[in-house]
Design brief:
By secondary structure, this protein is mostly helical. The protein has a single domain (2-203, 219-409), classed as Growth Hormone, Chain: A (Up-down Bundle), CATH 1.20.1250. Helices cover 78% and strands 0% of the residues. It is built from 19 helices and no strands. It has helices at 2-7, 12-34, 36-46, 50-78, 80-99, 104-119, 123-133, 138-145, 147-151, 154-166, 168-188, 206-213, 228-232, 235-266, 270-294, 300-318, 327-353, 358-387, 391-409. Helix 14 runs parallel beside helix 16. The longest helix has 32 residues, at 235-266. The protein starts with a helix and ends in a 14-residue tail after the last helix.
Length: 423
């Protein structure tokens, strides 16, 4: 594979981007975007409350967050390639276990297994390896990589068809088989650093970089290369973590409850509701790539604030939806904001804290930020059980990114070591 890329003058880093995107699409996309399709069958078959099912998704998120620091350390020590391969197999096992559940405890155990595996296969690890392969084109590469997650919305349609044709249990088994058959070979073709293949970062030699530097804008950086401990002690770390915790608080709840909301309160069919998820994630692709490209040139904090504003507006508008056509003015706001936040978080981390302990720092950020992703879906589920209406929860959720907007703006202009918080 490497020889083929050299023959045609293509930088192997772009193959790394493709592999990471494909793995995120197949290994994480189905469950993340397709979970809403399981809410109806699970509640119908077992009589579980909406809150009980929502806890399952929140558990997936929080278990991944708790495991993230350990995964981050393992990334720095054993590499993304090995960790991702093992994670894919664990995810597939979890899907098979989920397909066999007959009780709520077994449901939660299956979700736990999936969460552990996904923490080793998801976008966080992909961002780690891309940060090593790219510097000048990091924003572009991260934007392209997150296409995998965005295209994961397409899996909602496929998953819906599989459930309709074979039932939810066999559909989960089919997805598990596809994950192993496709993702494991892709993971094995990954290399952790360009130096492992004798290649320069970005595919540009030092001489070529020096020749081009005069006419190009310098890559923004704080000049810091913090260890995990140093990052954790900084005020800047907690501002970034809280920003994306508030963002996840809102957006993850919509991902879980969008399908049941449209089916039960708007009167949509399951097929249309699944299509709406696909359209939303399709729109998010513009946010992922557009904001990823912009991150190579403009203030990442300002771009992140724009993403938070779009998310807040989109969430507030969700509460006004009573007819399917109204999604026309809702999904663009939410989709752009949701998509843009994905590459920006990784790009902000690299700029603010450096690459010295990227995996470890990312694991700690992920743990902090996933607290929001845990409580958002749970809050929406609890309020629905109490009121039989999702709209009040959407308005409450919109407060999250609204607060995050000024918080991330306060990090602009970082150019020296940040003040440290008392520990």
């Amino acid at each position: 594979m490497a020889g083929l890329f050299r023959r045609y003058g293509i930088f192997y880093g772009w193959w790394i981007v493709f592999c990471a995107a494909a793995i995120v699409f197949l290994s994480a996309g189905t469950f993340f975007y397709g979970f809403g399709l399981l809410v109806g069958p699970l509640t119908a078959e077992f009589g579980w409350s909406r809150a009980a099912v929502s806890i399952g998704f929140s558990l997936r998120t929080e278990v991944g967050g708790v495991a993230a620091p350990l995964v981050g350390v393992l990334v720095d020590r054993v590499g993304v390639r090995r960790l991702t391969t093992v994670g894919i197999v664990i995810v597939a096992i979890g899907f098979v276990m989920l397909s066999r559940v007959h009780s709520l405890p077994a449901f939660y155990v299956s979700i736990f297994i999936i969460a552990v595996g996904m923490s080793a296969t998801g976008g966080a690890n992909a961002a780690t390896i891309i940060a090593q392969w790219f510097r000048r084109y990091r924003g572009k590469a991260l934007g392209l990589m997150t296409f995998g997650g965005g295209l994961g919305g397409l899996s909602a349609i496929v998953f819906a068809e599989l459930i309709a044709e074979f039932g939810w249990r066999d559909a989960l088994v089919a997805v598990a088989v596809l994950q192993v058959a496709i993702c494991v070979p892709l993971a094995l073709s990954i290399r952790d650093r360009p130096e492992d293949m004798g290649l320069p970062v970005d595919g540009i030699s030092e001489d070529d970089e020096a020749a081009a530097a005069a006419g190009r804008r310098a890559v923004p950086t704080t000049g810091l290369e913090l260890t995990g401990r140093e990052a954790l002690r900084s005020v800047l770390f907690w501002k970034v973590a809280l920003t994306f915790a508030l963002s996840n608080f809102a957006t993850t709840a919509i991902i879980v409850h969008q399908i049941p909301f449209l089916v039960e309160e708007v009167g949509s069919t399951e097929a249309f509701a699944a299509l709406s998820v696909t359209i939303m994630t399709g729109i998010s692709l513009a946010g992922r790539l557009g904001f990823g490209l912009a991150a190579d040139r403009y203030s990442k904090a300002l771009l992140a604030a724009t993403a938070m504003a779009c998310s807040a507006v989109g969430l507030a508008l969700f509460s006004t939806v009573h007819h399917e056509w109204q999604l026309i003015y809702v999904l663009p706001f939410f989709g752009i904001g949701f998509g843009a936040a994905v590459p920006l978080r990784a790009a902000i981390q690299a700029e603010y804290f450096g690459l010295k302990a990227y995996g470890t720092t990312q694991g700690m950020l992920f743990t902090a930020s996933t607290l929001g992703a845990f409580f958002g879906p749970l809050l929406a589920g609890v309020l629905y059980d109490a009121t039989a209406d999702y709209r009040p929860s959407f308005l409450i959720l919109a407060i999250g990114p609204a607060i995050a907007l000024p918080l991330i703006l306060s990090t602009r202009g970082v150019s020296k070591p940040p003040a440290t918080a008392a520990v």
